[in-house]
């Protein structure tokens, strides 16, 4: 007589169920991933856009500071960013984000041989004797318009 402790039922070798996932399990996994993407993607895109704006704004600050150094050396603001490099005020022009182009806008100044460009694309005007820098990436359209920076008026 066999002891009940030693006797075990034979293991079933064959299962009716094939290995793998059922369609319901796969759909549930896809649904969870879709919900995660719906939450994460807008946050990611917002962070990328915010980073681009901050980079452009930092580059505008750099160009305004270079313009002020240029004015101390030559007595007027330049309208051409490349003049800042040619006059050794900065080593190279700031790059980015993307294909952003920066434009310099000197205000009314009788000593400026290059003339004034006081009307800004955002509708504001540069104060007399002042300067502004605007940045935009035409490739991105309205999303690539980083606005203009006027020292003394803009705080960020």
Main traits of this protein?
156 residues; alpha+beta; three-stranded antiparallel β-sheet; 2 helices
Structural features, described:
The chain is an alpha+beta fold and 156 residues long. The chain has one domain. It is built from two helices and three strands; from the N terminus they run H-H-E-E-E. Strands 1-2-3 form a three-stranded antiparallel beta sheet, covered by helices on one side. Strand 2 and strand 3 form a beta hairpin. The longest helix has 52 residues, at 23-74. The protein is rod-shaped, with a radius of gyration of 32 Å. The relative contact order is 0.13. The model has no long low-confidence stretch (mean pLDDT 85).
